[in-house]
Write a structure and sequence with these properties.
alpha/beta; homodimer; globular; UDP-N-acetylmuramoyl-L-alanine:D-glutamate ligase; 4-stranded mixed sheet; 13 strands
């Protein structure tokens, strides 16, 4: 197990304008670990209820995801229901039943404690800090959060951010966090809260408009993968985080150039994730598909002045 | 004169949350030709009133813009007033006084009729077609339009689009045009209206989220240049079009790779344009600043796997 992921394993009920599904396997840790599994072996710290069957377990173990940290507790699993607008750009939460998640006290298994790469999915900042305090050898820690914690637990969020290398949030969260509309200004404020000694990184996800990554004076922007038909945006952000952290864990390299590549792999996983309902598409991706989509991203974003010398020597700079 | 630009030369009164100005030189042909002047010699076909002074003229002739097609008519110049929201992302038109523009019948001077590169700024599609019919040697024609014409003159717009190589519009216009929220679907519908024999191109501008360009199965996406302080978004789209068309005119090359570079130069000119009120910033840009911003765009968007062979040979693929 190389990448420790904390988050939710849940049953999602999803309505889109085209399809709907009830009680399908979801949750931040599920999407994140499935996406990361293409790059490294993730291990999950989460809790499920008695309704989590061997069939559900198999979805994760099929991808070699370590489940030693997946606690099974009496009662029902966390369940979430949401309905998307006609253009899939906004959604309404229909219900949130925390169930076994309500009293979840994350326990990091002995084997996980030396994890160098850790992703703290979107839960209460105090729980995120609690998990982090159980680890002893972290090299690179990522964190996701949401408007709810920015509104309800801002001091705790700011506290845990001091121990984090990379924060991954969306544009509306960044604006709410900083009261700045301009994302460049917002990024500076957020990075200012983090620990400068860690050379902190911020990724702002912009939905169909891609993402921007900030570190010091560096900025990288990547468009979203153009998709004509999005089936279900649920889990896109978690899939991005999984691809990003998975690639960083695989390559053990956090320099700026490699962080950019991690953004690309994260975006690739997010683009697959939304193509089918729930985790369906993440379960069936092939390595070839990932490689092709990497090339698609290059074609989508790169421009070159002529390189006659490179062409002459038959070196493909693209 | 190498690039024929038709559009408005106007006096703008602009209110932003920070500054305001009354009756400053503006209009689509003004911004477009100033931006294009860094790459080629543009010539304007437009009309001004008696309030257009030699001082205003000098702003354009200083940049070697050909004014043979700029008619001076009795009365006042076109005047526009607008006020921006606090985040500069939306604006309200305060007044539109067409004045001399009301009865404008564009006359293309003899010297302009053989223009190979033509940009039809945002006016009535019938006038755009009229201008085009006065030219005899066009190789590459660009067109801008707006919601107003999509709503009021759709058949005429569709008609003129058949004679155009590239349409440059914004995302809300593309959605209104096609009744498609998904921009990939919208792009296919719009390209389907244009003349397939011309291998038509569509650029959808997405404001602070950059742009996407479509041609056949090709897609290119470019983020906006990150700016912490935007002074005045007026003319950003026209400056983009000017930089884009200017670069294409200069290089006389419309292959896909060169179209991408034109997008970058267009975005560079737009990013300068918004840094000061009106055309102020466009009047003072240096070639060095353009070159630096080109490199900034590369750093902002490019990612590379290691190229050991290229590195060994000392070839910089970036």
């Amino acid at each position: 197990m190389n990448l420790l992921i904390i988050g939710s394993v849940a049953f999602d009920s999803i309505k889109t304008p085209f399809e709907s599904v009830e009680g399908t396997l979801g949750g931040s840790a599920t999407f994140c670990s499935l996406a990361a599994s293409f790059f490294t072996q993730p291990g999950i710290v989460a809790v499920v209820g008695e309704d989590f069957t061997s069939g559900h377990k198999k979805v994760l173990t099929n991808k070699n995801i370590d489940l030693e940290g997946l606690e099974q507790a009496p009662g029902k699993s966390f369940a979430w229901g949401g309905e998307y607008s006609f253009d899939l750009n906004s959604r309404t939460t229909l219900f949130t039943n925390l169930n076994v998640f309500e009293n979840f006290q994350p326990k990091v298994p002995e084997n996980y404690k030396k994890s160098e790469y850790v992703f703290l999915g979107n839960i209460h900042p105090l729980l995120q800090k609690d998990v982090l305090s159980q680890t002893t050898h972290t090299k690179f820690v990522g964190l996701d959060t949401m408007n709810y914690w920015i509104e309800k637990a801002l001091p705790e969020l700011k506290e845990v951010l001091r121990f984090v290398n990379i924060l991954i949030i969306n544009d509306s969260e960044a604006r709410e966090f900083t009261h700045e509309h301009n994302l460049l200004k917002a990024s500076k404020k957020i990075l200012g809260i983090m620990d400068l000694m860690r050379q902190p990184i911020l990724i702002i996800k912009r939905g169909e408009n891609g993402l921007s990554m900030f570190q010091g004076s560096h900025i990288f922007s990547l468009p979203a993968y153009p998709l004509e038909d999005v089936a279900d945006p649920t889990g896109a952000g978690d899939s991005f985080a999984g691809g990003f952290m998975g690639y960083i864990t695989q390559t053990e390299n956090t320099n700026w150039e490699n962080l950019k590549l991690a953004c690309v792999y994260g975006s690739i996983m997010a683009s697959f994730s939304v193509e089918k309902l729930g985790t369906e598409r993440l379960q069936e991706i092939t390595q070839d598909e990932i490689t092709r989509r990497f090339q698609d991203f290059k074609n989508l974003t790169h421009f070159e002045m002529n390189h006659p010398a490179a062409e002459l020597l038959g070196i493909n700079c693209n």
